[in-house]
Amino acid sequence: MALIREPLPWHAGIWRQLIAMDERGRMPHALLFSGPHGLGKQQLADALVARTLCANPGLTACGECHSCSMLAAGYHPDLIRVAPEENKRQIRIDAIREVNRAVSQTAQQGGYRVIVISPAEAMNVAAANALLKSLEEPGEKTLFILLADVPSRVLPTIRSRCQHWSLAKVPFDVCEQWLSEALGQEEDAYFWWRVSGGLPQLAVTLATPEERALRHRIHDAFEQLVRGAEPVSEAARLDRQAIDAILWYGIGWLEDLIRFGLSGNREALHNPDLEPLYRQAVKNARVQDWFKLLDYAREQRRLLSMGTNPNPQLILEAWLVRWSALLRS
Ligand SMILES: [Zn+2]
User: Fold this and answer.
1) What is the dotted CATH code of the domain comprising 9-166?
2) How far, in Å, is the centroid of ligand 1 from the Cα of 55?
3) Dist. CA 114 → ligand 1 center (Å)
């Protein structure tokens, strides 16, 4: 396992601010890093974990001390990572009780104790309430790092006890070099940056053969809908396991459609290759109808993320039926 010492290049500015706070002895005891999936929050957190636990930190963790070696080997007694159990969506109170127990004792290596909770919005109410006490009275040399894709879903009482860093989408010129290297020279970095909506790590994922094939299948299904295909049979051809990705793409396309319908601006499109589809679609339906469908899709995606909606196949069908009605109206 490699030791993560540095944040991604577009987080260099935040990193400098964090280090400056630490050097002035002003590091808060709880940080919340928020921003959409694919921005590199985890790498920022990992670099900070390493530097905080390091015995000889400079601008980054030294990479050579005992603490750094333990982290590189994959285990550090003063680091607790809290995440949902396998195949579960929620972080439950038992996991937080263990955090509270550990925080009430001194660090084994005599330095900091670091607790990383990710995704923080996965804590159920009982877990979040159990965490409050530790956040209020964390004790000496304790650092909580919470990561959240959607910070509004973190309990306000938790949010207000953390110093909140909202990480922004990354302009192309800031991540161009990194993205070109990550994708390989033969790939169109600008295209994948646009498709990802300014999320460089996500752009790399979307350009993998499997994700590319999924995007192609969804695109094809929508073209069939425009041509009058039955939405239920198109839904059956799509992989319902990929429902979240399918909704994510659909949401991006709707946002594109709305932009295109309102301004006709092609440069602002996230999916420039779908312009013919958009042209067809804006002819057929009104912008407020696209807004309604967008709300519907966001809500379905939210319900899915909470694990409360059990039938992806039905969501997929209902979703395509609505699209099809607009595409053909
Ligand atoms: Zn070190």
Assistant:
1) 3.40.50.300
2) 5
3) 15
Expressed in angstroms and rounded, the spacing between residue 112 Cα and the centre of ligand 1 is 13
Predicted confidence (pLDDT) at residue 310 exceeds the cutoff of 80: no
CA of 46 relative to ligand 1 center, distance in Å: 13
Domain 208-328, CATH class in plain words = mainly alpha
pLDDT digits (tens, 9 = 90+) for 41-64: 999 999 999 999 999 999 999 999
Cα 172 from chain centroid?
18
| Residue 235 confidence class, pLDDT cut points 50, 70, 90 | very high
3-state SS track over 64-99: CCHHHHHHHHCCCCCEEEECCCCCCCCECHHHHHHH
C-alpha of residue 74 to centroid of ligand 1, in Å: 14
Instruction: Encode pLDDT of 64-110 as tens digits.
Output: 999 999 999 999 999 999 999 988 889 999 999 999 999 888 777 77
Query: What separation in Å is there between the alpha carbon of 58 and the centre of ligand 1?
Result: 9
Enumerate the CATH 3.40.50.300 domain ranges in the chain, comma separated: 9-166
Q: Which ranges in the chain are annotated with CATH 1.20.272? A: 208-328
The protein residues having their C-beta less than 5 angstroms from ligand 1 (an ion) are: 54, 61-62, 65, 68
